[in-house]
Amino acid sequence: MKDRLTKNHTTQPELLPNNPILSVQDLGRRVEDRWIWSHLSFQVFPGERIAVIGASGSGKSLLLRALAGLDPLQAGQIIFQGQQINSHFMPTYRSQIIYLQQRPALWEGTVEENLQQVYRLAVHRHLIYNRELILNYLHLLHKKPDFLQRPVSALSGGEAQIVAFLRALQLSPAILLLDEPTASLDAGTAQSLEALVTTWQHEHPQRAYLWTSHDPNQLERITNRQITLKDQSEVTIEKSKETTIDNR
Ligand SMILES: Nc1ncnc2c1ncn2[C@@H]1O[C@H](COP(=O)(O)OP(=O)(O)OP(=O)(O)O)[C@@H](O)[C@H]1O
Questions:
Q1: CA neighbor of 72 nearest in space, from 84, 52, 92, 87
Q2: Would 133 be classed as within a structural domain?
Q3: CA-closest residue to ligand 1 atom 8
Q4: 17 by DSSP, 3-state: which?
Q5: What is the pLDDT of residues 194-247, one digit of tens each?
Q6: What is the model's pLDDT at position 18?
């Protein structure tokens, strides 16, 4: 199984363990007149598994969306592999940093059509759909190959989220941003998806992810460092279990 799972034909960026993949410098996000968070600085190194925690409304989703380049920033900058993010670099960046939300939209059609469709997007056109990889992932999830032919309109919420995970993981991003991705799922499906992400990371140990969740047990299982958004005016980056990060 392990050998089969290492056959991923997507490209993987050259990442050195001591160089950050991402440097976040003095970042600030304001919504209308209110700063949700500000002066946020930290780095993400290859292989890191980071929990982003904080109360509801502390800005976890806004942070992941900002890191994904989906929302504008009102202060600071993001450096990806030594290069500052700007509009010119954004397409390359977006192919390497992928955001997965709690209830992602799927396209009409079958599961497999959904998985293939994403390769038509300009940012992923250099990649090739890898059915074997998907079948290996499905095997891990105890799903048969005929799952690929199911229409997405007939999927349960948990099955739809499995498709969303597969669609993101197959693109082999350097950093995966997971925004409460299992919050509405039963415990069994949630743990299957945790196992899937763990397998995905083991395939290329330099891959990193940030995961938001209100479930401390889940974060204990799958992360090894924490960034805590304390409240709507103060941002604190807490000491990690295994690594240290900038602390302002
Ligand atoms: N598009 C928007 N327009 C106005 N306010 C917004 C917008 N998006 C987010 N907010 C506000 O910004 C704050 C942070 O929202 P965010 O969704 O990032 O919080 P969160 O920490 O992820 O919360 P939860 O744990 O409940 O998912 C909230 O007060 C929210 O209402």
A1: 87
A2: yes
A3: 62
A4: coil
A5: 999 999 999 999 999 999 999 999 999 999 999 999 764 445 555 444 333 333
A6: 76
Closest to 176 (Cα-Cα) out of 212, 229, 219, 217: 212
ipTM over 0.90 threshold = yes
Within its chain, how far is the Cα of 210 from the centroid? 6
Mean pLDDT of 169-174: 95
Q: Residue 1's pLDDT is what?
A: 41
The enclosing H or E element of 190 equals: helix 187-203
Distance 62 CA to ligand 1 centre (A): 6
* Residue 69 placed within a domain: yes
Give the strand pairing for 83-84 and 75-80.
Answer: antiparallel
What's 224's domain CATH number? 3.40.50.300
Ligand 1 pocket residue status of 20, Cβ below 6 Å:
no
pLDDT of residue 9: 42
Mean pLDDT of the region 85-92: 83
Region 164-182: mean pLDDT is 95
Please report whether residue 142 resides in a domain. yes
- What own/partner pairs with CB < 8 Å and gap ≥ 24 does 235-241 have? 235/37, 235/38, 235/39, 235/40, 237/40, 237/41, 237/42
How does strand 225-229 pair with strand 208-212?
A: unpaired
65 lines ligand 1 (CB under 6 A): no
151 alpha carbon to ligand 1 midpoint, in Å? 32
Q: Is residue 104 part of a domain?
A: yes
Domain count, the chain: 1
| Domain interval for residue 84 | 2-229
Q: Are 229 and 70 in contact (CB under 8 A)?
A: no
